[in-house]
Write a structure and sequence with these properties.
Length: 465
């Protein structure tokens, strides 16, 4: 089967507008239905939103008060929420001990800022996360359209991302860490889509030379869409820092001709939000990279021995990669856990005597979303196709850096860090599904992934996660 990547059917200039209109008209309605469908699913998946962990609401409130540090510790009252149970904070010593810094990149708080300006600390960040998650899936459907996939494959791939991966758990839960993932996913998907749209070619080695202007001077001829792709990518990084290691994708894929021109255009775009982020860190902590993570590392190493952190290792350490890799690939749930109530009967969702229950430290990527395995089929085009090569490098680089991090997330269903590279992995998955001779196998894996993630979402609420 011929693989079609980012290149549509050949049409004449006269035919093109009519063809585009005919193709795009129903597509817009499909995208809208996907958004509304995901919004409903994410909404009903978590009807009781308590906003227990809402660090970004407090951060937005602090900015409105003209402060970098959030008010902390604050005891809840009958009319106002508290935060004295927060652990991911760094108390500010000295002049203002009633304030504390949070370590997380600031973009999610920026997203919440207008809502906090209206609703204050009562802002329902978890509800907003469901809207952002639904928007993510609409963006994913648009991005996949740049690949010129079969419409059924395009829809199935979008649904897989929304319901067959841990993005579902993140979007319906929407607490601090998961909200950051949901914000980053949509921006990364948009950046990928714009880069693909700017570069319809797929083969490695077809770079153009730098263009010479009539006066004989060389110009970079930066592609504006590649600049925009870089800008959106940089914004995604200010929500989840490790997304930055997906940058090689925008060197290999995008407009502007040569890889140098692509890299410069995307780099300039990404540098704008990243420079603002570094300036923010410098202003708020006195350091280009916040020292709060180091404080929390030392704190959690002693407080949670069950997580197997090592005080003598660095926050990012290759030894953690070896330790964490089995969790990411094949971490299993607890099967036939000993019953806490000897009189209880085994049940699928029995807390006292479960048949099978998720582990709070996480579960393997291919255990919770077996359909991701299809993405490996796209690696047959490694080194031959810039799109596949760039996406694979991005997935690998982000995964490796995440695995070297001391923490892999906790009190979670599945492996939430996979959301950082999921947009790039989705490209590999969709291309593999498009060329699969027996697509029913792919659709079957998608259905299985959805069932597993539904099971995980239900268990998350049963366990009070």
């Amino acid at each position: 089967m011929e693989r079609r990547i980012a290149q549509g059917p050949v049409t004449t200039a006269a035919e093109a507008p009519a063809a585009e209109q005919e193709r795009d008209s129903p597509t817009v309605w499909i995208g809208l239905l996907i958004f509304l469908g995901m919004l409903v699913v994410y909404g009903v998946s978590n009807p009781d939103r308590v906003n227990f962990y809402n660090h970004f609401v407090w951060q937005a409130s602090a900015w409105l008060e003209g402060q970098f540090g959030i008010r902390f510790p604050v005891t809840a009252t009958g009319t106002s929420p508290g935060n004295d149970y927060f652990q991911d904070v760094f108390p500010i010593a000295g002049s203002d001990p009633s304030r504390a810094l949070i370590p997380f990149p600031p973009l999610p708080a920026v997203v919440l800022l207008p809502f906090v300006a209206i609703f204050g600390l009562s802002t329902n960040a978890q509800l907003i996360a469901t809207f952002v998650g639904a928007i993510d899936l609409a963006i994913a459907f648009w991005m996949l359209g740049r690949l010129r996939l079969d419409q059924t494959v395009r829809i199935a791939s979008t649904i897989f991302l929304g319901l067959g991966t841990v993005l579902w758990y993140a979007a319906e839960l929407g607490s601090t860490w998961f909200f950051a993932h949901v914000v980053a996913v949509g921006l990364t998907l948009a950046a990928i889509g714009i880069a693909i749209e700017a570069d319809p070619r797929a083969a490695v080695g077809d770079d153009e030379a730098v263009v010479a202007e009539p006066g004989g001077h060389l110009t970079l001829g930066l592609d504006r869409r590649q600049l925009l792709a870089g800008l959106l990518f940089g914004l995604a990084c200010t929500s989840r820092l490790t997304v930055v290691f997906g940058a090689p994708f925008f060197v290999l894929v995008g407009g502007g001709g040569s890889w140098r021109r692509r890299a410069i255009a995307a780099g300039i775009g990404a540098a704008i939000p990243l420079a603002v982020f570094l300036a923010y860190d410098l202003a708020s902590t006195g350091h280009l990279m916040t020292p709060v993570y180091d404080y929390l590392y030392q704190l959690e190493t002693g407080a949670y021995p069950q997580l197997d952190y090592h005080a003598g290792w660095s926050i990012e350490d290759p030894r953690y990669l070896i330790q964490n890799l089995p969790l990411m690939l094949s971490g299993l749930p607890d099967i036939l856990r000993p019953c806490t109530d000897p009189n209880a009967a085994r049940g699928l969702f029995s807390v006292d005597c479960p048949l099978i229950v998720p582990r709070d430290v996480g579960m393997g990527l291919f255990v919770t979303s077996p359909a991701w395995l299809l993405g490996f089929l796209s690696l047959r085009w490694w080194g031959v196709d810039r799109l596949v090569t760039g996406a694979a490098i991005a997935v690998g680089a982000i995964a490796v850096v995440n695995l070297m991090h001391f923490s892999q997330g906790w009190v979670q269903f599945g492996y939430r860090f996979s959301n950082d590279f999921a947009p790039f992995a989705l490209v590999l998955f969709a291309l593999a599904l498009e060329t699969l001779r027996r697509r029913w196998i792919g659709y079957g894996l998608i259905c299985l992934s959805i069932v597993i993630n539904l099971w995980g979402v239900i268990w998350g609420h049963v366990l009070g996660w």
